[in-house]
Design goal:
Chain lengths: ~270, ~250
């Protein structure tokens, strides 16, 4: 029996360049993702909605609480600077100490606001709850996150930390009876600690590691074009383009994923 | 003293490539730009050269039109070099140089052929002739027409140029393919660490932004943004300087 794998397109709504990358894949007609991950407060979240709907795929809600390029939907609070921009969790050093100063009430309000944005604009519930930087690996965020997941009866991505196992949070989620994945794999290698996989170079290792992992795994893929503005915005730039080139010229790599695993969405867990 | 020049190839290929190259040049990370004189966005590239008073502009020769609708593949060139007469090869080489001169109003400041095609001795003969006549330095010839990466040496072509006294850098480095910018930076620093005092180095980059047009027409696409990352990495640039290198235009190598 094949292992189950979710393939998620990450950061939809981050910017127009990223959105265009998703649209390029959609128009290609090629199977790449089994889930899309939609940011509620990205630079191009509003224009991403139509793309998300056009895909005819499940769309999960990608909470974003610690990206200083984006604003909180609830306005200035303990989560933000004075002008409403979220305080930054530094993925260069994996320093998430900004969360220390977060007021739990503000966290909960922002999560709810982002959830309501999704439901209002997509016209339906998300397929699952996830987060852009995995912030709910921190117990301060985990608690309201889990409360929302339980209330809305939604599955969640495994609460890892720095893309590694986070036993305390994982066991909490499972003990709360929430459906969750057990493994997470990043389809990007040259970024912040090299914890991921280059699909072209590391495919066999990736297939092996997913297959060896207990339970349901999720492979997070980054996609997008890269305009001058995008280059300035994100430390993940050319890596998003690599997936586009794979889809256009080396699609057999994606086909291997579909051949080796039972590709599902979060609802299939 | 060790001189080094970072060169951006493919100026004129697409708007997104032009924009990336110009930004890298303005940052000071690129000391030479190699322009394709028969590409889709050559006109825009030439305007950028004029608007920004860019002097160090080499020619990225392609012999024939490199516009996306007309572009030849590497195999076409191999076939051409096999079958064409000397006159035909000479005509193609000189026609392109003449076009550069008429469009830019100057001679190229260096010669850096697309796919290192001057690694083929038939075309090298005329490239060398032009280079000697006008005292123009030339990129070290390799064999990219037949191999993917630029690392394989091409002894016969190199020694041919050396004996004629054509100016060339001592070393040529390039990492064209692959998604791992960190590995490439590390590899380049390792390679540059082996360069002796008095030697000179050319490093080839392909900076550019990525849009749909580029993705569709070129198999070298996201790697250009990877090169932007490298060229905009101040730590990497400082590491190069810390090895005792001085950045200079190609002409001054």
């Amino acid at each position: 029996m094949k292992k189950q794998l979710i393939i998620t397109g990450h950061d939809l709504g981050f910017s127009e360049s990223v959105n265009e990358g998703f649209e390029y894949i959609r128009v290609s007609g090629k199977k790449v993702f089994s889930e899309l991950s939609l940011l509620p407060n990205g630079f191009a979240s509003n224009t991403a909605i139509d793309i998300a709907k056009s895909f005819e795929l499940p769309v999960n809600l990608c909470f974003c609480l610690t990206n200083s390029k984006f604003k909180a939907l609830t306005g200035p609070s303990s989560l933000t600077t004075e002008d409403g921009y979220l305080k930054n969790a530094d993925t260069k050093n994996w320093d998430f100490s900004v969360i220390d100063a977060f007021d739990p009430v503000d966290i909960e309000k922002e999560l709810i606001a982002q959830y309501e944005w999704f439901v209002t604009n997509m016209g339906r519930k998300p397929s699952a709850l996830v987060a852009q930087k995995g912030e709910y690996g921190d117990p301060k965020v985990l608690e309201p996150f889990v409360t929302l997941a339980k209330k809305e009866n939604l599955p969640v991505r495994a609460p890892w930390w720095r893309w590694k196992t986070n036993y305390g949070a994982q066991s909490f989620v499972e003990a709360e009876g929430i459906t969750t994945t057990q493994g997470i794999f990043m389809g990007i290698k040259d970024w912040r600690g090299r914890l991921g996989y280059d699909l072209e170079v590391d495919l066999e290792q990736l297939l092996h590691d997913i297959d060896s992992n207990e339970g349901v795994s999720e492979l997070i893929l980054f996609v997008g074009f890269c305009s001058k503005e995008m280059f300035a915005m994100s430390s993940v730039s050319w890596q998003r383009g690599q997936l586009l080139n794979i889809v256009k010229r080396k699609y057999h790599i994606i086909e291997r994923l579909f051949d080796e695993f039972d590709i599902i969405g979060f609802s299939g867990i | 003293m060790k001189h080094i020049t970072f060169v951006a190839d493919d100026f004129g290929l697409t708007k997104s490539v032009n924009s990336g190259i110009l930004d890298a040049y303005k940052k000071g990370s690129i000391q030479g730009i190699a322009i394709m004189i028969m590409a889709d966005e050559t006109e825009e590239a030439i305007q950028m050269i004029k608007d920004n008073s860019i002097n160090e502009v080499g020619i990225h020769t392609s012999l024939f039109s490199f516009k996306s609708a007309e572009r030849k593949q590497r195999s076409d060139f191999i076939e051409f070099f096999r079958n064409a007469s000397d006159e035909q090869v000479k005509e193609a080489v000189y026609k392109e140089f003449a076009l550069y001169e008429s469009l830019l109003g100057q001679k190229p400041t260096f010669i850096a052929p697309q796919w290192n095609m001057h690694g083929n001795l038939r075309v090298l003969k005329y490239v060398a002739e032009y280079a000697i006549l006008h005292n123009i330095p030339v990129r070290i010839p390799r064999a990219v027409l037949v191999v993917e990466e630029i690392t394989d040496k091409n002894y016969s072509a190199e020694i041919y140029l050396k004996r004629l006294g054509v100016r060339m850098p001592t070393h040529l480095f390039a990492h064209i393919l692959g998604s791992d910018a960190s590995e490439i930076k590390h590899a380049l620093i390792e390679e540059l660490s082996t360069v002796k005092d008095g030697d000179s180095v050319e490093v080839i980059f392909h900076p550019g932004y990525l849009d749909k047009e580029l993705l569709d027409i070129s198999s070298l696409n996201y790697e250009r943004v990877r090169d932007m990352n490298i060229l905009f990495d101040d730590e990497f640039m400082n590491n190069v300087k810390a090895l005792g290198f001085t950045f200079v235009p190609f002409t001054n190598l």
